Amino acid sequence: IWQPIVLLGEKDPNFENWEEHCRFVGHTSDVLHVAWCPKTAGRLASCSTDCSINVWQMPNKEPIKKIDTTLPCKGVAWDPIGKYLAAQVQGAEQIVKVWRIRDWKLESTNVKGFESPDDTQFLRLSWSPDGQALATANGFDNSQYNCSMLKRGSGGIAQENDGWVRECILKGWKAPVTVACYNPKMLKTSAGVLDFCIAVGCQEKTLTLWVTSNPIKPICVIKGMFEGEVYDVTWGGRDYYTLSACSNDGSVALIQVTQDEIGSIAPPEEQRKELAIHYPYMADGLGDMDLPEDTAQMQYEQLNAAAMPAASQGMVQTIMTEKIVRATQQETKVGGRRKIAPAVTKQVCTVVEPSLEPASAGSEGSGGVASGAGGVGVSVSSS
Q1: Are the beta carbons of 252 and 371 closer than 8 angstroms?
Q2: Which residues pair with 235 in a beta bridge?
């Protein structure tokens, strides 16, 4: 992790000079992707060709969780709601996997629709801003390459298509899709309808922009910008109207879009209402509590409680129970023997409004542009 240097006598950091802030060492092969968690400041996931995902929490130098992916992992993405971590692995077969962050149990293993005959160096997947869709790379169906959107599911056994089914398919490519990236903002069309924009790159050296209100045809196709395949794209800049893309030809391009092209940013109140439709507990101010999203997931976890480690059971029970603070003691004497018992002073139930923004850029380890290809460490620089 790198941070800008604050020069002597200056108050603001100098973004022309950087120093190493933290180094994570844990992978045994090339790191292909890193991603900051949008809900927890300082939390980072890294994936590697060593068939693993490491979850790091600054300033700890050791991973707080190591996930075995079985096959080389080529892309990771955090759920913006804070419940899941998704990844695409590729080897003898290509699989999209989703883990619950609460207990790190594998919730979904999706193979259908990803039987592509071609391998790619990277597979960048992305969540929609409302967390209801997961855009995946290198989809292949009916001898056509595509970008498949998996509909968010909850509960069920970790088997093929256990609720994370393909809801929408973007088509039109003659080579594998390497990256899909949603604009992190909920947008609003000129007709006043909420919409999402997604950028898709492929091995055809092209970049296309789509809106979910019209998945049949892209709103923009950019050709001739690169001489090689598109490796990665990300949204940023003021109000997230700037799209950055890089290619294996060694170049980086910046594309500026406008409100007329992809829509204006929806007001925060409308975004909260949209989230409350899918996640009713958010309307009650419980957006930051790690609760099951529906009765199906609760039933599934109850049926499988016997198989859960004791620590996991305790963790779930703690999450579902109000925290009681026992800060003082009461002393009594019975039969000449002194007894000390904690006294309940107050109940704590913190109510937090659901956050529509990523973790604060001022928090340690949040924000920035992450890079992890071609090495066994993780390197990050802020912009």
Answers
A1: no
A2: 243
Instruction: Report how far residue 278's alpha carbon sits from residue 280's, in angstroms, rounded to the nearest whole number.
Output: 6
pLDDT of residue 335: 60
* Helix, strand, or coil (residue 289): coil
| φ, ψ at 27 (rounded to 5°) | -80, 150
- 3-class state of residue 280 by DSSP: helix
Residues 6+ apart with CB under 8 A from 327: 345
* Cα separation, 127 vs 358, whole angstroms: 13
pLDDT of residue 13: 87
238 Cβ contact partners less than 8 Å away, ≥ 6 residues apart: none
Please, what's the b/e burial string for 210-241 (b: 16 or more CB within 10 A of its CB; e: otherwise)?
A: bbbeebeebeeebeeebeebbbbbbbeeeebb
What are the residue ranges in the chain where pLDDT is below 50? 155-162, 308, 310-328, 344-371, 373-375, 379-383
Which amino acid, one-letter code, is at 365?
Answer: G
Helical segments of the chain, H only: 259-262, 268-278, 280-283, 295-303, 310-320
Residues 147 and 215 sit within 8 Å (Cβ to Cβ): no
- Cβ burial, residue 92 (10 Å; 0-12/13-18/19+): exposed
What pLDDT is attached to residue 9? 82
pLDDT at 164: 84
* Paired residues of 182 in beta bridges: 198
d(CA 366, CA 41): 5
CA distances from residue 293 to 152, 277, 287, 289 in whole angstroms, order as listed: 11, 12, 11, 11
Model pLDDT, residue 345: 45
Cβ-contact 68, 280 below 8 angstroms: no
pLDDT digits (tens, 9 = 90+) for 300-317: 555 555 554 544 444 444
pLDDT score at 119: 84
- Of 11, 5, 43, nearest to 364 (Cα)? 43
The predicted structure's pLDDT at residue 124: 95
Asked whether the CA dihedral 47, 50, 56, 59 is positive or negative, the reply is: negative
Q: What is the pLDDT of residue 50?
A: 95
Could you tell me what percentage of the chain is helix, strand and coil, using 3-state DSSP and rounding each to the nearest 5?
10, 40, 45
235, two tokens: 């949204």
Give the containing element (helix H, strand E) for 199: strand 197-202
